[in-house]
Amino acid sequence: xxxxxxxxxxxxxxxxxxxxxxxxxxxxxxxxxxxxxxxxxxxxxxxxxxxxxxxxxxxxxxxxxxxxxxxxxxxxxxxxxxxxxxxxxxxxxxxxxxxxxxxxxxxxxxxxxxxxxxxxxxxxxxxxxxxxxxxxxxxxxxxxxxxxxxxxxxxxxxxxxxxxxxxxxxxxxxxxxxxxxxxxxxxxxxxxxxxxxxxxxxxxxxxxxxxxxxxxxxxxxxxxxxxxxxxxxxxxxxxxxxxxxxxxxxxxxxxxxxxxxxxxxxxxxxxxxxxxxxxxxxxxxxxxxxxxxxxxxxxxxxxxxxxxxxxxxxxxxxxxxxxxxxxxxxxxxxxxxxxxxxxxxxxxxxxxxxxxxxxxxxxxxxxxxxxxxxxxxxxxxxxxxxxxxxxxxxxxxxxxxxxxxxxxxxxxxxxxxxxxxxxxxxxxxxxxxxxxxxxxxxxxxxxxxxxxxxxxxxxxxxxxxxxxxxxxxxxxxxxxxxxxxxxxxxxxxxxxxxxxxxxxxxxxxxxxxxxxxxxxxxxxxxxxxxxxxxxxxxxxxxxxxxxxxxxxxxxxxxxxxxxxxxxxxxxxxxxxxxxxxxxxxxxxxxxxxxxxxxxxxxxxxxxxxxxxxxxxxxxxxxxxxxxxxxxxxxxxxxxxxxxxxxxxxxxxxxxxxxxxxxxxxxxxxxxxxxxxxxxxxxxxxxxxxxxxxxxxxxxxxxxxxxxxxxxxx
Amino acid sequence: xxxxxxxxxxxxxxxxxxxxxxxxxxxxxxxxxxxxxxxxxxxxxxxxxxxxxxxxxxxxxxxxx
Lengths: 713, 65
Description:
The complex is a heterodimer of chains A (713) and B (65).
Chain A: E1 5-13, E2 26-31, E3 36-41, H1 44-50, H2 54-64, E4 78-81, E5 97-102, E6 109-114, H3 118-124, E7 129-133, E8 139-145, E9 150-157, H4 163-175, E10 182-186, H5 189-193, E11 199-205, E12 210-216, H6 221-227, E13 230-236, H7 250-267, H8 274-277, H9 282-288, H10 310-316, E14 335-339, E15 351-354, H11 358-364, H12 373-386, H13 390-406, H14 424-436, H15 439-444, H16 448-459, H17 463-469, E16 472-473, E17 476-477, H18 487-494, H19 508-513, H20 520-540, H21 545-548, H22 565-579, H23 585-605, H24 626-631, H25 633-643, H26 653-679, H27 689-694, H28 700-708
Helix pairs in contact in A: 1-2, 2-23, 7-22, 11-13, 12-14, 18-20, 18-26, 20-23, 20-26
Chain B: E1 2-4, E2 7-9, H1 17-24, E3 32-35, E4 38-41, E5 55-59
Parallel strand pairs in B: 1-5
Antiparallel strand pairs in B: 1-2, 3-4, 3-5
């Protein structure tokens, strides 16, 4: 008999609506405080303006919270949605869920996308989106049973804390012999005890007979989940076919899906081999281009980086099909079988590690000066099981390691931990401490922004240098790319709505390696088009990898190779086939523009969303220390002399460092000007009245907010 | 003889990746090529030799994140 207990707290029987053209036209509302379950219709204007996915999340969240709402207030809502195309099993990368909530680390809106079966199953169960408000002191499991048309809330006890075991147990508990019908969303003790918690979304691996998971990592979405008292949200559905989404034109859907799917099968083996090695190929490629963060983003290169490269993980990954959604031919969600951790509660036991991907390798490896693939895998395993975001874990630990090496903190502050770069035991110990909510790990788990304030106040550390080296913006820890030599990518990170995450714009190669955008206007154009197109994937429930990680062979000969327009046209075709709304590629950008600008205005409503909030730590812009400058002196000297026409003869490194900083910071401010202008924003970074009117988001509340912030035209 | 993007191409002793791209007369600014299972990036094109019988893939790397 299982030693856990489920007690009915609330049940709602409902009639599942007929799916129509990718939509159910209703959302599911759950309030944990009362508790309450309700079904809400989606208004036609909401559907037209916000499309689905992240758009629906943002609209639900906007209506749920006030400007005074904080992340741990009961009225904060945690929203999860697929999108109209989500759940299509024949088109690659069509299984994403998008999570949005108010973040504990940014205090504003955060969105995070994730694979796994949950979003599609939620939709097929009858709901375009899920909104959870309130808090409970009991541990609560929500069960959305699309097969039996029943929503159940259970008070539970005795379930394991960590997501690794919890996912397996809940899959078995609800599966009734059909584990593939179940997707579990859960987190772990790290999410409860820190502000950088992630959510694990499961998919069932039929070959390996286990529930596996992907992570919605960014901005502490798991910490919000844990704070609400949620143990898990489980969705159940069966029998997914190309018809389940009820496409408007099935023949057209099959035609375009077949083309894209076949192309990936043909070209992936010739290009990045993502079906075999995932995103691990990026490690050595980034390293060779001085773009792989090492030692808290000081440098972009290290001689030991190949130890973390694709050849190592090619050997470590368990071969087989690893698609996090059904029928995806990219199938990049690889894992390590029979891995044996050297520390923690699973020490000496065989476990399955879901990952690592590039971000985790760079964040928990090279950025910490750790070049041991086993340690990276172990940090990956425990971060997932504890419900911690590996990006924020990596960037956070990198920050404290540099503070330690600079003497800003010492062992009297770290509980005796020696935090020199490369200390694998210490890095793992911090992860275990985060889960336990104890020791120095509990402090690291507050995120870089709070650590900077705490170290200055309590430890007397130099606030100015920490501002330069603490790799966060808007309160979110940087994901794992070096941006010093790419002004466009500085914008890609600094101007991203939620903070420095690469899912809005990844322009490094286009800018730095290919030099496709030499002028400010070209950079601004890229910082308009790419974030808009990438936003569109989040509206529709799609993964962006099939768009531009596997590319048509003739793409290089097209007018704008960076946009991969052949695929963009396929996506317009895909959208038209499912929804019945005939669109062209430009329409996709327009859909995103409405939601993108709305999110910017949401930031403004929460007290952010202005020019000052797009600032970056100087480490993202240029060399902070003389040592950094001298490591690439030839590059920096040349820039000063040739581009900025500075007289550097006889100048000391300190003087040149100051000159370079002045120039680069000016460039970044000029970039802001150009991008704001292109996006139709004021010089302070606020969408103009004209822009919101053009995009159809000139709701009374929006217009009033703009007026209150001095925007009248 | 080597295979480049599925087509046969003559190989010569001392052929580097830079030589290969020059001889292809392909102006695209490739950042990465794959020789069998090894990735070679642009900073290493000039001093990386292409072995005979290699299977070479030209990677049009525009994405990463």
